[in-house]
Amino acid sequence: MDNQIRQIIETVQHNCHIADARHAGDYTLCVYLLKMREMYRWEQGIDFKTLLTTDDVGDWLTQREGVWDQVEEQDYKLLEINGKAHDPFDNDLINALLDQHDLVYNAGLGIRCRPHFFVAEREETISRDGYTIYISGREYARDMAAPGAMAQKDKIFIRRESLRRVIWEILDDARVNGLDNPLTRAMSFYPFEQDSQQALDQITEAEIPYVIQHEIGEVKAGRLLGDDWDDMLSKLGRTKAEIMLRAVRDHLADSMTTLPALVADNKPAAIHFYFGNMTAMRKHLAPDMVEAYERWHETSDLGALERLADVSFQRWRGLAEQVMDLYSRSPDAEAIENLITNA
User: Fold this and answer.
1) Are 37 and 29 in contact (CB under 8 A)?
2) Which is nearest to 84 in space by CA: 4, 6, 146, 19?
3) How far apart are CA 292 and CA 192, in angstroms?
4) Surface-to-core class of residue 164, CB atoms within 10 Å of its CB (0-12 exposed, 13-18 middle, 19+ buried)
5) Residue range 40-65: average pLDDT?
6) What are the angstrom distances between the C-alpha of 342 and each of 240, 286, 333?
7) What is the pLDDT of residues 275-286, one digit of tens each?
8) Element (H or E) spanning 198, and its range?
9) What pLDDT sits at residue 175?
10) Is 95 helix (H, G, I), strand (E, B) or coil?
11) Confidence tier at 102 by pLDDT (50, 70, 90)
12) Facing residues of 243 across strands?
């Protein structure tokens, strides 16, 4: 790795530190500590089988918070490539310049406009239905959140290393908290008892197509809902209405892509994982989806899921349109909560 690439990685990691410093307070203490534990694991190259204690992470965490104190008020650094400075959010240009080095870069905004940065080795670039899909492997710089996938217009970034970590966290929590649930059912299709790391690789590979489907659904949902939806989310931030609106959008996105793909493929492990990974709010808003899953689990009859896939799009699109109409007349969080609850 030449000096220019090392400098780029250092700059990206510096920008990650700034983002972390500004947004660490977005998390509850428990979630914050979990994310920092996994950040430590990533930086030190420690595998998931190794249990980490407070003593392991404590000194590192104190040092990292000291770094944040120094950089929190700084501006994000420009990336120096081939002697020229580039805006860190100019993804297309930066990726074009990094292409010859088999690297992929992304800077984007997540929940509550939290910036995310990463640079990683590029494993594959796929063109599909007008979308460019980047699948990356080893990550050289990342922030503490490190989402496993992000979509920006017609570009989709699938971060295999971060996705693998997210899946491990989901499955490990499910294993600890219950013997029989959708996620442990999904795990039963992979050799976790014999080789947990190989099994994790297999399930990550199997889930990537559905993660891509969800991100394509997110892009399509964004086009349907327009900028007014994002404006509404920002105005209703940190309310129950915001959580409900994000669940509605996720349902809408999946109704166009992920759910039909799951039904068409009819792969039990993937269906179990999808419903096991559904958030509590999504389940609350769609008890019929949970019932359809349980019926399928009990009978292996795909009919209930097929019927669900047929009607989901109109349902969630209609609800989203009702919400936006109500918000345009009365931008009140409680009114929106009531509308969604009673839909």
Assistant:
1) no
2) 4
3) 27
4) buried
5) 92
6) 15, 12, 14
7) 999 999 999 999
8) helix 196-235
9) 83
10) helix
11) very high
12) none
Question: In the structure, what pLDDT confidence band is assigned to residue 218 with cuts at 50, 70 and 90?
Answer: very high
Question: Is 295 within 8 Å of 301 (Cβ atoms)?
Answer: yes
Contact 110, 103 (CB under 8 A): no
Residue 236, amino acid: L
Give alpha helix (H) positions in 81-121.
91-98
Locus of tokens 């209405």: 241
235 is written with which tokens?
A: 């105005």
Give me 200's structure tokens: 């994790």
Distant-in-sequence, close-in-space partners of 151: CB < 8 Å, separation ≥ 6: 157, 215, 216, 218, 219
Other Cβ atoms within 10 Å of 288 Cβ, number: 14
Per domain, the residue ranges of the chain are 3-161, 182-341
Whose structure tokens read 């920002």? 234
The residue count of the chain comes to 343
Angstrom CA distances, 57 to 28, 34, 65, 293, stand at: 18, 11, 12, 40
Compute the C-alpha angle 247/219/307, nearest 5°.
60
Q: Edge-to-edge strands of the sheet including 131-142?
A: 103-109, 115-128, 131-142, 155-159, 149-152
Query: In 47-159, which ranges are continuous DSSP H helix?
Result: 54-71, 91-98
Taking only the tens place, the pLDDT of each residue in 160-217 is: 999 999 999 999 888 887 779 999 999 999 999 999 999 999 999 999 999 999 999 9
Beta-bridge partners for 134: 125, 157
Average pLDDT, the chain: 95
